[in-house]
Amino acid sequence: MNRRDFTRTVGASAALAVLGGRVAAGEATGATAQGPPPTEATRPSPLAIAMLVHPDMVLLDLVGPQTVFSLLMAKVHLVWKDAEPVPTDVGIMVQPTTTFAECPEQLDVVFVPGGLKGTVAAMEDREVLDFLARRGRSARYVTSVCTGSLLLGAAGLLQGYRATSHWYVRDLLPMMGATMAVDRVVVDRNRLTGGGVTAGIDFGLTLAGALRGEDYARRVQLVIEYDPKPPYGSGTPETAGAAVADEVRRRRAPLLAAAKQAALRVKARLAT
Amino acid sequence: MNRRDFTRTVGASAALAVLGGRVAAGEATGATAQGPPPTEATRPSPLAIAMLVHPDMVLLDLVGPQTVFSLLMAKVHLVWKDAEPVPTDVGIMVQPTTTFAECPEQLDVVFVPGGLKGTVAAMEDREVLDFLARRGRSARYVTSVCTGSLLLGAAGLLQGYRATSHWYVRDLLPMMGATMAVDRVVVDRNRLTGGGVTAGIDFGLTLAGALRGEDYARRVQLVIEYDPKPPYGSGTPETAGAAVADEVRRRRAPLLAAAKQAALRVKARLAT
């Protein structure tokens, strides 16, 4: 089975198998002169996770994964260009805990949340893209949820990778050199990208398995009681039906058009 | 089919049927002297939703539902006893937008998030309980997610009602005069209670159907792309297995013991 079939047909569980293999191989902990590396289960080392926060982000994109990360013995940095609180879709302001200049260089995870309005603005922000490109080059995992993958793409981090995004902008990914994949969580080497908004929980748990092993992640899933029962079968454009999907697109037409224009500019920039 | 079977066996979809009937009957909009009330679809009236915020709450308990509410043409009030920002499990501080004294009296929804540590403290806070009892008496819907139902119970709002909570404290509900139910979202008359943490999304969408009708709620589910694919089958104590569930309980033993003691005190108080 080639990688395309692998990551597409079996989704998250296969992705976990790929990621789990990397953990088992000791890639995560590294060998030391004293002998074989401790296993993740016996001496977990603190993880360094940087989560970008930016104006007009969708707070749930951040808090879903952040809740999982908070249970992983990780140091989570909420990073922005400066120390000013950023507004979010639900009105809660988020205080960055570090800035681009002060954020640790070596990260286990760099993460980007989404939110159509905020993503479109950030995609054209040189400071943001430079930060992501730099940390993305050295991070163990490069990740996003929702429209956040467009920011990763704009930073040049998805060229040659399979990735997904919120359903209504995922067709822009090829403009950034990525291959668009349709799945809840897409894993290609060290790039993990999730679908829209609520996919952050599935994404967080998938990454938790890679970072701390399956037993640990199972426990986390139980702590957050993730046993979903959506009241409607309308969570994707396919299951919701064309009428509903078209209505959603119609109501967001200006922002979707702006996202497309921004993606075209990224395409031109990456091609030069 | 009696109500017990109704709400237990078919879960959220049956709950929606019950709630939908109330909307269709015009209960939601009310008749006016000018003639039949407008339907929800033609002239939606702004909704007034008060979401309690309190120290050490689990932010995801709040933000899951709040994200849905933000798409319902609602005025959402984040209410606490005073205007001081409250700390949460993930470190983000939340600024209340109103206080107990200034919060509107007539609410469509009063909502309580959870978080074991925060709930235990709030359960013994007279000011909080008095506020909830007062608003709960007149609100159209009385709701919670996660351990938040213990706060509703402590305020006397669940006596004679079926309700749920986070799995590791739901057995305390009978001490507050409630009947413990095991389901993702439990609806009994105008009380909607959700399971732990991530159940806030299922809860939010269920309530959205009641407040704005099914078509609207379907659209919201699509906007937040709620098509979950949990990586593990460990979201409940039953599916995770006894070993995992016991480990989770063991690690939280002091707080769980404190919750039980607080619930016993509520029981004694409600009995007098």
What does this entry show, briefly?
Two copies of one chain form a homodimer. Chain A is α/β, with parallel strands linked by helices and 272 residues long.
Protein topology:
The structure is a homodimer of 272-residue chains.
Chain A: H1 3-9, H2 11-24, E1 47-52, H3 59-69, E2 74-80, E3 98-99, E4 109-112, H4 116-122, H5 126-138, E5 141-145, H6 148-154, E6 162-163, E7 179-180, E8 185-188, E9 191-194, H7 199-212, H8 214-223, H9 237-240, H10 242-251, H11 253-271
Parallel strand pairs in A: 1-2, 1-4, 2-3, 4-5, 5-9, 6-7
Antiparallel strand pairs in A: 8-9
Helix pairs in contact in A: 1-2, 2-7, 3-7, 4-11, 7-8
Oligomer: homodimer
Overall pLDDT of chain A: 89
Structural class of chain A: alpha/beta
**Structure summary, number of beta strands of chain A:** 9
Most extensive chain interface and residues per partner: A-B, 64 and 64 residues
* Main sheet: strands, sense, barrel of chain A: 7 strands, mixed
Question: Keyphrases for this structure?
Answer:
two-stranded parallel ribbon; homodimer; 9 strands; 13% strand; alpha/beta; 7-stranded mixed β-sheet; 272 residues
